[in-house]
Each structure stands twice: as C-alpha cells, then as structure tokens.
Write a structure and sequence with these properties.
- Helix 2 runs parallel beside helix 4 and helix 6 runs antiparallel to helix 7.
- The protein has one domain.
- The N and C termini lie far apart (50 Å).
- The longest helix is centred in the N-terminal third of the chain and has 25 residues.
- 77% of the residues lie in helices and 0% in strands.
- The chain is mainly alpha-helical.
Length: 194
Amino acid sequence: MTINQIVTLIAGILIGIAQLTYIIAVFRRNVTPSVLSWSGWALLMGAGFVSLYLEKGWQNSLTGLLISVIGCASIALIGLILKNYSLVKSDWKFLIAGTVCMVFYLATENVVATTLFAITADFILAIPTFKKAWNDPESEKTNSWIFGFTSWSLTLLISFNHDWLHVAWTLYLFAFNATMLWLSFFRKPQPRVS
C-alpha cells in the first residue's frame, strides 16, 4: 500500500466512525438532527460524488465522500424513524434555496459547475444545523465532529495530489467539521439567533 492509500483508509475509517458516533447519539437522543440538513447533504454529496466519479473514475479521495453520503442518509432516516429530529419552519427556506442550487447544477452537465453548486447548496443546507449549534451547542455536541474533522484533515493532506475539484470538496468538508467542532465544543452559548 502507498502512503496515500493508507491515509485514505484511515480517513475513511474515521469518517465512518464519525457517522456511526452521530447515529448512536441520535439513538440515545443526545442529539437531534435537522432532518432537512441531513437529507439535503445526502442528496448533494451524492450528486457531487456521482459527478466526480463519472468525470474522473474512482479515486481513493472519494472514499470519505461516499461514506459521508451513506452516513448522512442514515442519520436522516434514523432520526425520522425514531421521531428524533429537528424541523422548524425557517428550515424550509434553506431547503428551497438548496433545491434551487441543486436543480441548476443538475441541468448543466458540467463537472465544475456541478461541484461548485453542490458545495454552495450543501452550505445553504448546513445553515439550520449551524444555527442550532449556535443557539444550543449541547444539541450538536458529539464526538462525531472530532472524528469528522480528523478524517477531513487527513483527506485534505492527500487531496492535493488530485485536481482542484477534489480539493474544493475536501476543503469545504474540513471547514464544515471544524466549524461544528468549534460551535458544539468550544464556543460559549450566546443569545438565540433567528
């Protein structure tokens, strides 16, 4: 095995552990996932994964993205089944904005546009989860953010050997996990954000 394959394997295992840790926290009702965010992430990362796979074929750096797609879909589904999910009226505007982005990039058939719009829409769908973590850090406090941050840090190290689209996805997911880690573990609770 090459060093890149070893790092990819470790990063894949860590993102799998991150997703499993979050799923366990949902089962234990320690966290309440935003069902719109997690469902949207599964769809958008899935579309981004398919786009990158069809353009470049399988690359080891896609491992974490594929595991994330499966994990996000599982988190949304398990939250719905257990009736342990967050769904507030304001979340719908983010879903609509994310859907507009998704429809736009699906119509383009351009891998660059597809990836950039997927990242943009993914971020839009993250806003309810960011708000929830900002307002109530304990509602998102789970070790899954530590595993996710570590996994995407490792993936970022090896992604520079690939094209800039892989780097863009990885950098975005690194920043997302770093933000959630900061919001849920290190930030002092503040007044609610509307």
